[in-house]
Amino acid sequence: MTPTRSVSNLATFDTRHTSLHLSWLRLPGVFLLCRCLSAVALFTFATPNGGRVTENPIQFGAVAWLSEIGTFLVIAAFVGRAGRDLSPGWILTRWWIGLATLIGYSIVAEIDVHLRRWLGLRLNLVFLRHLSHAASQSGFWETLSHFLVQDWHAILLSVFFIVTPAVVAFRSRQYVHSPKQKWTHRAMILVGTLALGFSAQYGVAVRKWRMISPWPYGVAMDVARDTFVARRAPGPDELRDLKELTGALPSTMSAYPLWNDLSQSYKPISNVQSHKNLDVFLIAIESLRGWAGDLRSVDAQRRLPNLYRLFRERGVFFPHAHSNGYPSGEGNMQLHLGVWSHPARAIAAEHLGISSRALPEILRDGGYQTKWLSGSDPSFDNLQHLMGRWFHSWEVVLGGDVALARGALAAYDAMGTSKPRLISIYTASTHPFYELPKSEGPLPGDPEQAYLKALTYADRAMGMIFDHVRELGREEQTLFVITGDHAQPNQWQLSHDGELGLPNAGRTWTTLLIAGPGLPAGTIRSDASSHVDVPPTILGYLGANESNHFLGRDLFADPTARPVVTVFNGGAAYIEGDTMLVGDLSKQELTKFRYDLGNNEDAASYQHGQAIAVEPGDAQKFLKTANAVKSFAWLADHDRLRPPAPQVIMPKRARWP
Length: 657
Description:
By secondary structure, the chain is of the alpha/beta class.
């Protein structure tokens, strides 16, 4: 007699036949298949904003698959192991609970997919915390409906990825018994754990994995970080430390202690009150190392003739400039938004919903024509959404820095001179592995020499822009600001991170050149500066007196030296001039270096300067730094940088090559 396959008769069902089918795995298996297909769609199809979530779909998709497969295998193994000796009634109950859980998981996962496609956000505590506030904004529902209409085909695909596995699982519900073999569970746990481990080791482990891992991991990490980093509002002493380090003016609003309200209004200004009305080029050179771009050295002057000429003509050079975080997404965010990096989160990925006011927004609202151009895929650092909010338009120009310079000049010429122009440029050729056009010849085998060759190529590209402005006779109407998005650790620094601490000079030490009419040509400023000084310095130079939350200073109006704070991977550095104090934000184990010894003629041999003894007062300095960083983190997490803007700015469409 053929055994019945109904759930009610599971007690008499042939368990060997069930084991052969691994029937208890079918339920999560069909959902896992659709999760993998969803990952393919996420990293392949275009988004409503233009472009794709990433231009490296195979690389990102493979890691996403590993993390999803690892998660499902581990969970299925534990559930199957726990259900080996259940009665038929409890097996049926477990099946219905499992089905409901997987449907709920898939719904949340697809919502997470669309948040990444639409806003570059993940479904995490930061998003959930501010969702109610965002929903109260006048433009929220209009923005949501815009995405729903523009992305209807992707929404239908998400519905398919939820309904299909639910239907398949329901029709196969008779296969719910667990196999008896212990080795099956153990093997699945082992394979699943290895898959998760490999996926978590991708790139800069935590920050990039957060952008591709299944959504529960982001929520879990947020809970942990909220517990250990910013679990309570900063007290008066901690806020005092923050204001002392940033030089923030007393705020008239206690809820927004960093907001410097100069206009008594949040309405966009009608015109930048500038007596100069200058064009602005803000250029971030990828991985510009401070020891390789030191224009004080003869070696750098030969390698970077165009930057050196601009410096000699009308430039002020800051050799002790630093990024306030790492990697590229942080550097570009700081240069435009004027705030530090978060100690535990990537602001460009997780704080898009906060009220803020970036430099390009101020200039755009004041009548500037604004454009951002990138030589690489901005989705890798989740920059496309911020740039779409801040600039009139943005564009990706692939093919190397010379092609990028040509694209920038085409945009510059197309804008015309009826209104001043802000052209922000992010180069790419000096990023490892230094891919240069074939016309540049073979790269040296030594990575240090390859970097230096790429840096010379980047200088030639920037020289095209400088020369074009000269040929048009626009030198007296143009301000150039050139810096690096961050440094780039060499092999020696990477192998000595444990002794140096993070962040060290290998990641943050870059250079800064500001060149414009009226500046003392060929001047060198040895005080420490950083990315957050760039927005207030540009506004001050243009004569624009606008409300802001910038954490830096106007380098020309306020030449008094001030410590620089830089944050990365749970650590922070307190920098004064040529000295760097590095510590962990929780354990506060300190190291101290004189990172610049004043002899950078051989850039390829630079290590990290010279270790010096930690002095008794250094512990107090770093304690203030830790308090300030945690205070800023709390303010950013709780949307306290700027009072709410009156409306949500619609994202701009990108133009892709």
